[in-house]
Write a structure and sequence with these properties.
By secondary structure, the chain is an alpha+beta fold. It folds into two domains: 180 residues, no CATH class; 147 residues, Alpha-Beta Plaits (2-Layer Sandwich), CATH 3.30.70.270.
Amino acid sequence: MIGLNVVFLALDSIIVLISGEQFEGAKLTLILSVGIYYALAPVFALFWLYYVDMTIFQSKDKLIKISFFPCLIILINFGFVIASYTNDLVFNISDQNVFSRGSHHYLVILTSVLILVMTTIRIFKYKEHIRKKDFMPLLLFAIPPLASGIILILFNEVNLVWNSLIISQLLIYIYIQSKITSTDFLTGLFNRREYEMTVKDLSMTKNKSLIISGIMVDINDFKSINDEFGHRVGDEVLIVVAKLLKSAVRKQDYVFRIGGDEFVVIINSDDKSAVNQVTNRIEEILNQYNQSSPYSFKLSLSLGIGVYDDKKYVDIPSFFEHLDLMMYDDKKYFKKHSEV
């Protein structure tokens, strides 16, 4: 999106500089620049739709399913651009090589607006799959370009569209940088910093109906895997476990790598059995992986599982400390029986 915005700004500058000039090649340059400028306009909105969808679902397959309508809009917009070379539609280039917006220039803006609206609806539709911290930045992105588009329609000479996109991209850049600081670089899971902030937020929540469950996870014999097979394989195992845990939880649950080979799953639900359902899925997916594993060793996990009870635990941090102890008890049990 940043690269595309640079292209738009460059084309905008070329159009302003070339419009009205009569040197050799000026008309062809203006014709090509204006055509590319207007044809690419809704593509920016399409890229934003793809970014949002990948943020929510992290599935490339879903992008194909949602592409039909926006791609159809882009094709229609391309038809407007082609028609404008012979008709005063979205733009006009006079015999004197002067560029001006056409009587229906708002059609190009509408194509972008339709895709942005589609994306906004999708954000609201799948709100439960988006973290609260992610929801507002994703939602706010569309506001500056939508506002500038309305201004351009009402006031033909006031074009703030690409300036507004810079503001939108700045918002997303800040959001991405914030996300990077909360993400583990190897596995892509949330890191310890984000874990501690999440536990703190849960400790301050006033929603008494919310049931908080947790699973502490540790990879058995991980040191032996590193020593025998090397750190590259060790890193691969960490990535495998991260993917395993992500595929076992629901969209609204959290998975963290809090250090070394230790992970945490936090489950927010109105159902106390949710943690057992997630645990069963972890064990099922782990068994499936071991059946087709490329390694000679079997991957094994120690777990500490529980549901928070404010009558039993002083606070939420102490609850997760208890799960950590349960996980180490499970690890001791594993070592005892693996040595037999």
